[in-house]
């Protein structure tokens, strides 16, 4: 029952069983002199590299095994379900491994959403995004190095709009898919839930990985599923064909818009951030 009580009052002071961390500053000079800051950047780079290596290699392998022109058929390979599991499973593994070092973002859209919520500083957000994009390019580069012929033949795992779908449909799919992911990230890492349920921090990578898995099931037939600008950029840079760049902006605009909506929804509606700020302003104005 105690976990259902948000707070009580003792005299004139409100008692709470959790405390929200203070907002991250836009620029924190102290973190620039800290080894943990650069260690986190390295962790994001390596995690995104591994993420792209395993997932794009899975996509290339499936397309090769199911190619009817090379003695394959649609029943061979892992299928869309297996590809979705590869993406979701790798996110689960990598978030679990890096959460205690960098927060386990592995996605510029996630970093952007957390920046908007003042969970990370501007400098950290920019450096994370650069590391994620660099890691994605290197991860796809490794895939091409090991599977050069298949990589070019089967599209390099690059995100493209599927035939029959408009740009608007693809953009909407990316917005909604990223909203689901970033909303899950906020929910799984909420300090209020972490303080009241000790198992939540341990299980946080699981719902995040499942969110990626479910979104891939829904949107692979539409856009190949981006929801991660670094993933889309890495594949496009290494594949470097016109079809990979024709609608590339969709895989940046969609995730960033979805992350913005998720950050606003969770922080200002579910957590009532705007109401709390207004209440604090009214209290201070009456003093």
If you had to describe this structure to a student in words, what would you say it looks like?
This protein has a two-stranded antiparallel sheet with strand order 1-2. It has 14 helices and two strands, in the order E-E-H-H-H-H-H-H-H-H-H-H-H-H-H-H. The protein is globular. The two termini are 35 Å apart. It has 287 residues and is mainly alpha-helical.
Total E-strand runs: 2
Overall radius of gyration: 21 Å
How is the main sheet built?
Answer: 2 strands, antiparallel
Mean pLDDT rating = 86
Q: Outline, from the CA principal axes? A: globular
**Secondary-structure element pattern, one letter each:** EEHHHHHHHHHHHHHH
Distance between the first and last residues' Cα: 35 Å
Indicate the structural class: mainly alpha
Approximate helicity band: 55-70%
How many helices in DSSP terms?
14
Low-confidence stretches: 1-14, 277-281
How would you sum up this structure in a few lines?
With 287 residues, the chain is mainly alpha-helical. The protein has 14 helices and two strands. The protein starts with 6 loop residues before the first strand and ends with a helix.
Throw out a few tags for this protein.
287 residues; mainly alpha; two-stranded antiparallel sheet
